From TrEMBL, chain A:
UniProt GO MF annotations: guanyl-nucleotide exchange factor activity; translation initiation factor activity
UniProt-listed Pfam families: IF-2B
Annotated keywords: Cytoplasm, Initiation factor, Protein biosynthesis
Subcellular location: Cytoplasm, Cytosol
Chain positions covered by the region annotation Disordered: 126-161
GO CC terms of this entry: cytosol; eukaryotic translation initiation factor 2B complex
Compositional bias ranges of the Polar residues kind: 126-149
Domain of life: Eukaryota
Quaternary structure, from the entry: Component of the translation initiation factor 2B (eIF2B) complex which is a heterodecamer of two sets of five different subunits: alpha, beta, gamma, delta and epsilon. Subunits alpha, beta and delta comprise a regulatory subcomplex and subunits epsilon and gamma comprise a catalytic subcomplex. Within the complex, the hexameric regulatory complex resides at the center, with the two heterodimeric catalytic subcomplexes bound on opposite sides.
Family the entry assigns: Belongs to the eIF-2B alpha/beta/delta subunits family.
Protein name: Translation initiation factor eIF2B subunit beta
From TrEMBL, chain B:
Domain W2, residue spans: 497-669
Compartment annotation: Cytoplasm, Cytosol
Listed PROSITE patterns: W2
Protein name: Translation initiation factor eIF2B subunit epsilon
Source lineage: Eukaryota, Fungi, Dikarya, Ascomycota, Pezizomycotina
Compositional bias segments (type: Acidic residues): 444-456, 662-680
InterPro entries: ARM-type_fold, eIF-2B_epsilon_N, eIF2B_epsilon, LbH_EIF2B3/5, Nucleotide-diphossugar_trans, Trimer_LpxA-like_sf, W2_domain, W2_eIF2B_epsilon
Family of this protein: Belongs to the eIF-2B gamma/epsilon subunits family.
A GO term for molecular function: guanyl-nucleotide exchange factor activity
Region (Disordered): 429-457, 659-680
Keyword entries, A-Z: Cytoplasm, Initiation factor, Protein biosynthesis
Organism: Dactylellina haptotyla (strain CBS 200.50)
GO BP terms, alphabetized: cytoplasmic translational initiation; regulation of translational initiation
GO cellular component, one term: eukaryotic translation initiation factor 2B complex
Length: 495, 680
């Protein structure tokens, strides 16, 4: 939400994280979070995901039998990170997502085991074990490639999807049913998948690299030597790492996915009130501006975000993908056709793209709002009950909008969706630097007044009409379903 | 200390994340070299329940510092073990930290000399003291400094200043100064520290400076953050000038006064951001308040920088750790910090206070802006104002602690006592206080009984009743033209400092300093000679400087009429070798007397001093009859003897008459002698 103030810190962290021990990397990140050198939901999410990747790859628990140990370790790490910066709730989201991935791997393998007990061990593939129809034509072939469900051409995918969604752990699958075309038009980085098959493409997000060995059929000598059940000793680390990599990829592409929905939400000749200066929102508007003519009314959000907001209007160079260059390059390399957002686009301002843009101070929102067709805002975090935490000033805007029955739309990546319930919303809001309100040099004010500078606003669920996420649109009332899909039924307390 | 000029262009490119080849180094001095925190200095000082040093280190980490040298003197073991067990010594620390203890360190100057010897520094570095609380971006300052270095090779320092209103609560008292800068407020031309008592009334500027810069800006409302970016050339300068102690009074003032160095110093004036230095109890209190009020964001209590801290923020700048027990009817108001394990009983009202861990606050206690450290017990019905209650203090019920009191470690205060605002209670430590260490004894001290020198600054009563003490002419920044400056100088003509420029001024400063610090005469001669040679000065300049320095020194020493001759004699006796080296002829004798007369003009007891000087010089054979008579006769002319000077002269009439008498006598003798001669 808050624009990058120090992308260098993130870049540096991402660079060194693989060169130090995971425990050190954790402490480095904790320091960076406490000093607020890494802030804004996405940067934090990226750093946390990268750290978890490192952590899992170095963790001593690699075997299926040790999955509970791994879960515990990750949870403990999560607690540390959450404690370091409880206001960045996205930390908890990412940790919980990773926990979900680990649990899934554990369950999946357990499922294998149980199935293997029933049928002939060693003949089963992962793929066949997940499906109900273990007797599917090619399911018996024990090759690494057959581990991938999408490799089985002509197979009915809905079946797989249903099956998977029942387990409620993977990210995209449950949404394939609705809004598929929109989300699916983002293409997976792997060019080898056929373009037409959206399910394939999406599914490939989950498994881009082949699993490292260990299909049940190939027993390693090690497994034998230990004399344990060979299914229990399966190495799940690779799978978990893949899962984390998917999350990281999602973070890289979430803006593009969101932008794809923009045309459906911004119509010709609409007047849209926009709150927030995040790159996500900018891309969203830019994408719509390609096809539509509309008017944007930018709310300044003084005193914490006004500079960034003005920056957006006049000098967009900042938004030329400074921090995700590497990611963009990677995507470009793998799928040249499907370059997410040409960097060119960000050389332009909204104005130069033919969108009339009006900057207004927060105080005139109540006056202007009646002229507006729609309010679009970014968010810091979305909560389970459909409320969200956004830039300070958002609540006023949403409240005004409600008065005039103007729809409020929150655009946000699904990684910002938190399974937490706002029992005490106040404790979730961050209070910032008082000097943004009054300069510290003013001795009379400093000594004589109480000054507060809340950075965030809590926007209750009844003030939001619609959430646009990269996995589809949701009403606040239905968000809980998405939470279920994202995090499963497991509740991990990271406090 | 070989600088590598080849690296310079590369450094220019050294943007934020592009790692420069050289580590960014910082030197932290974890000692204030004063006694302002007594009797509380026994432990690492802390603000808002976190050691102050922690804030400094976090600030350096934020600034991207990669290597830290922590110099300490007092409590070095404590600091060392603290650092060792802290996160800063772990692998994950953003910088490598070296704790350096040296028993010879007693000032900033010593640290610099030590640095020069140790050769740890290989590039421009950051110099801060270990009591800085700041959230500014060091990178911005650094980049500015480096860009400047490329243009101006002689730039040796960029100091960070913060513009604040004159009455700001966080301005340290007694550390104010006037900065004379160019009109862009970048380069510092002159630095003049201001004294608090007696308040400095005028500031003298070198003549050349005013001539060379028709536009200058003089500013007094700058808070010196004591964050400096210092070039690696500076430590050797300190070695050269072994008497430099203070980084401001001596170094900055000295380097700017002396054009020989040809060095320039720049200022980085902050418009936003926070920077403060906890250098006295007054600033301790105000910066603690700033932290609570989140001016120092992100360095706030709820950042939990220490391991095991668990502060949570709630609306109204209230910070509570886990496991705080609050009674139902206890009222916790704004700006409070409460550490874990603390229990606050029914009916207590806590406002604007900081309470450490495991404290017990009794029923109906009223805490108003109190600072309470760990493990303190406050009995029922106590009322505590803006006081500092150190760790382990036990205040029994019904006490009243007035604003300004300090209660040191482990003191137990009897039931129903009233602690006055000027009181400093202590249980142990130095000298006479120790006899009161028995428990249950109220050791109450009036200020007068306590410490020696820094009375004014230590007194909490004084600290808290901080008013607009120093509203000098310079409190507002103004671009003034030459005329105005000249005018300002004009009405301060009598000030001896303003009359001399260039070499005499330097020599004057150096001599006066040496006299005050009681250096041996050999050193003075050495220094003076060095200065004279380098400036290629005439001997009459030397005499001018010497006489003004000697007179100034005497004037500061002489407080009563009785002391006059004693001090004059002692001073001149001490400086005999010096005088011997500058008085060669009769005219020299006359000249030095004239200079002395000039200096004494208009001064209290000027005449008496002049007479004593003349007498002593005569007795020591520094001046003979001819010299004194020449002076006497020269001055008698109509040309330029001000009434003040004349007054001084009047006072010596008796002495001169006596000298004349002697002269005649000796003339007689001479004649006799000559006669004898003739006889041969």
């Amino acid at each position: 939400m808050v624009a990058d103030e120090n992308p260098a810190a993130l870049a540096k962290f991402l660079k060194i994280v693989n060169t130090v021990k995971a425990s050190d990397a954790t402490e480095i990140l904790i320091g960076l979070l406490k000093r607020r050198q890494i802030k804004s939901s996405r940067n934090v999410a990226k750093a946390v995901a990268k750290l978890l990747l490192r952590f899992v790859s170095q963790n001593r628990h690699t075997k299926l039998s040790e999955v509970n140990g791994l879960i515990k370790d990750v949870r403990d790490l999560g607690k540390l990170l959450v404690a370091a910066q409880p206001k960045e709730m996205v930390i908890g989201n990412i940790v919980r997502r990773v926990l979900g991935v680990i649990r899934e791997e554990g369950n999946e393998e357990n499922l294998h085991q149980s199935l293997a007990d029933l049928t002939l061990g060693g003949r089963l593939s992962r793929a066949s074990s997940v499906g109900d129809d273990s007797s599917a034509p090619d399911s018996g072939t024990v090759t690494p490639s057959s581990n991938r469900p999408f490799s089985r051409d002509g197979r009915d995918f809905e079946e797989d999807i249903d099956d998977l969604s029942r387990r409620k752990s993977k990210v995209y699958i449950p949404n394939l049913g609705r809004g598929l075309t929109r989300i699916g038009s983002f293409q997976a980085p792997n060019p080898s998948f056929s373009e037409g098959n959206l399910q394939h493409a999406l599914f490939s997000l989950l498994h881009t690299s082949p699993l490292p060995i260990d299909s049940p059929g190939t027993l390693t000598p090690n497994n034998k030597a230990e004399g344990k059940d060979h299914f229990e000793d399966k190495d799940i680390r690779g799978d978990v790492i893949d899962g984390i990599k998917e999350i990281m990829e999602e973070l890289d592409v979430v803006d593009e996915q969101l932008a794809l929905a923009s045309e459906q939400h911004i119509h010709a000749n609409e007047i849209v009130m926009v709150l927030g200066s995040s790159i996500t929102l900018q891309r969203f508007l830019m994408k719509a501006a390609i096809k539509r003519k509309f008017i944007v009314v930018m709310v300044e959000t003084y005193p914490n975000d006004h500079k960034d907001t003005q920056e957006v209007l006049k000098a967009p160079s900042k938004y030329r993908l400074p921090q995700s260059k590497a990611a963009a390059a990677k995507i470009t390399a793998s799928t040249p056709k499907d370059e997410p957002m040409p960097t060119l686009e960000f050389k332009n301002t909204l104005t130069s793209m033919g969108v009339e843009t009006i900057l207004i101070p927060d105080s005139v929102v109540p006056a202007i709002i009646s002229r507006v067709n729609k309010v679009i805002m970014g968010s810091h975090v979305i909560l389970r009950n459909g409320s969200c935490i956004t830039n300070a000033g958002a609540k006023t805007v949403a409240r005004c909008a409600l008065q005039h029955s103007i729809p409020v739309v929150v655009v946000s990546g699904v990684y910002k969706l938190s399974p937490l319930y706002p029992f005490d919303p106040d404790s979730m809001l961050e209070t910032g630097d008082s000097s943004a309100v009054v300069g510290w040099e003013d001795g009379d004010m400093v000594g004589g007044t109480e000054i507060f500078n809340p950075l965030m606003d809590f926007v209750p669920d009844n003030l939001v009409d619609h959430y646009i996420t990269n996995v589809g649109g949701y009403t606040p009332q239905n968000l809980y379903k998405l939470v279920e899909e994202q995090y499963g039924s497991a509740t991990d307390s990271l406090e | 200390m070989a600088p590598t000029p080849k690296n310079k262009p590369a450094k220019k490119l050294g943007a934020l994340e592009e790692a420069p080849e050289k580590l960014l180094q910082a030197v932290v001095v974890a000692d204030s070299f004063n006694k302002r925190f007594r009797p509380l200095t026994l432990e690492t000082p802390r603000a808002t329940n976190t050691p102050v040093l922690e804030y400094t280190l976090e600030f350096l980490a934020l600034g991207g510092v990669e290597e830290v040298f922590l110099y300490c003197y007092a409590h070095s073991e404590k600091i060392r073990s603290y650092i060792k067990s802290s996160k800063w010594s772990r692998e994950s620390s953003p910088f490598e930290i070296h704790v350096i203890y040296s028993p010879s360190i007693t000032s900033v100057g010593d640290v610099m000399r030590e640095l020069d010897q140790s050769r740890l520094i290989n590039d421009d570095f950051i110099f801060v003291s270990g009591d800085i609380v700041s959230n500014i971006s060091l990178q911005t300052v650094l980049q500015e400094h480096k860009a400047r270095r490329l243009v101006d090779k002689s730039c040796i320092m960029t100091t960070v200043l913060r513009e604040v209103s004159p009455s700001h609560r966080s301005r340290p008292r007694g550390e104010n100064a006037v900065f004379v800068m160019d009109s862009n407020r970048e380069r510092i031309f002159h630095y003049e520290p201001l004294k608090q008592s007696p308040p400095t009334e005028s500031v003298a500027l070198p003549k050349d400076l005013v001539k060379a810069n028709p536009k200058m800006s003089l500013q007094e409302n700058l808070l010196d953050c004591c964050i400096d970016i210092i070039s690696f050339e500076v430590p050797p300068l300190f070695t050269e000038n072994f008497d430099w102690q203070h980084s401001r009074k001596d170094f900055l003032h000295g380097i700017l006064m002396d054009e020989l160095y040809g060095k320039t110093v720049y200022a980085h004036i902050l418009k936003s951001g926070y920077a403060g230095r906890i250098q006295s109890l007054h600033t301790y209190d105000s910066i603690g308040r700033d932290i609570t009020n989140r001016w120092t964001y992100p360095f706030c209590p709820d950042s939990n920088f220490l391991d095991g801290q668990s502060y949570k923020y709630s609306r109204g700048h209230m910070y509570k750790e886990a496991d705080v027990i609050l009674a139902q009817s206890a009222e916790i108001k704004e700006n409070t910090i409460i550490g874990s394990g603390t229990k606050i009983e029914d009916g207590a009202i806590v406002f604007g206070s900081t309470i450490g861990r495991n404290c017990h606050i009794g029923q109906n206690v009223k805490l108003h802006s109190a600072i309470i450290w760990d493990n303190a017990v406050i009995g029922d019905n106590c009322t505590i104002g803006k006081a500092i209650i150190a760790s382990g203090v036990h205040i029994n019920s019904g006490c009243i602690v007035e604003s300004g009191a300090i209660i040191s470690y482990g003191v137990e205060v009897e039931k129903g006592s009233r602690i006055l605002s000027s009181a400093k209670l202590t249980k142990a430590s130095g000298g006479k206080e120790s006899k009161n260490s028995r428990a249950k004894t109220i050791t109450e001290y009036e200020d007068s009984e306590d410490d020696e020198e820094e009375q004014v600054e230590t007194s909490m009563a004084g600290l808290y009743s901080w008013k607009n003490v120093s509203e000098s002419d310079f409190s507002d920044m103004s671009d003034i033209d030459e005329d105005a400056v000249a005018k300002k100088r004009g009405h301060k003509r009598t000030n001896s400092e303003s009359e001399i420029d260039g070499f005499p001024r330097e020599a004057y400063n150096s001599l006066l300093g040496a006299l005050k610090q009681n250096h041996s005469v050999d050193i003075m001669i050495l220094e003076l000679n060095g200065l004279r040679m380098s400036a290629n000065a005439e001997f009459n300049d030397v005499r001018l400087a010497t006489s003004s320095a000697v007179v100034s020194y005497m004037l500061t020493k002489i407080t009563s009429n009785e002391a006059v001759s004693k001090i004059v004699d002692a001073t001149i006796e001490k400086l005999l070798p010096l005088f011997n080296r500058m008085i060669f002829e009769v005219s020299d004798q006359a000249e030095i007397l004239e200079f002395m007369q000039k200096e004494l003009a208009g001064k209290e007891r000027g005449g008496a001093i002049m007479q004593a000087i003349g007498m002593k010089l005569y007795n020591e054979d520094l001046c003979d009859n001819d010299g004194i008579l020449t002076w006497w006769n020269d001055g008698n002319g109509p040309d330029g003897e001000t009434p003040d000077m004349a007054k001084v002269r009047e006072a010596t009439t008796a002495f001169v008459k006596w000298v004349m008498q002697q002269d005649e006598d000796s003339d007689d003798e001479d004649e006799d002698y000559e006669e004898d001669d003739d006889d041969d």
